[in-house]
Amino acid sequence: VQLVESGGGLVQAGGSLRLSCAASGSTFSINTMGWYRQAPGKQRELVGSITYGGGVTTYADSVKGRFTISRDKSKFTMYLQMNSLKPEDTAVYYCNAVEIMGYDYWGQGTQVTVSS
Shortest CA distance to 73 belongs to which of 94, 57, 54? Predict the structure, then answer.
């Protein structure tokens, strides 16, 4: 499975961005997909995830009510809609996919910068 993120950039606090993660390869084997982020000097953290089949989502408390994860199975693409962005949301955002057998894959990351 190959994952390619897009949609990062610079935005002012209070603004919105939508990230995309396009999957290719053995997409039939994907069980869940997720978004992670890593800020400078901090550990990578889970932002949220979605079950690829049923579309059940989970979110970190820090983004609940502001971020929404969705997927378009016909396009093998997952999205992260980020609203009401805060400077503390600044990070490199990574797409992750976990296969039914447990193998996981990562995208290259996309930078999101929120200015105050």
Answer: 54
Number of alpha carbons in the 13 Å side-chain half-sphere of residue 107: 26
pLDDT of residue 106: 97
Task: Write the burial class of residue 30 (CB in 10 Å: 0-12 exposed, 13-18 middle, 19+ buried).
Answer: buried
Q: Which residues of 49-88 are buried (b: 16+ CB within 10 A; e: fewer)?
A: bbebeeeeeebeeebeeebbbebeeeebbbbbebeebeee
Give the residue among 45, 23, 37, 38 at the shortest CA–CA distance from 104. 23
What is the block-wise mean pLDDT of the chain (116 residues), using blocks of 10 residues?
96 98 92 96 97 94 98 95 98 96 94 97
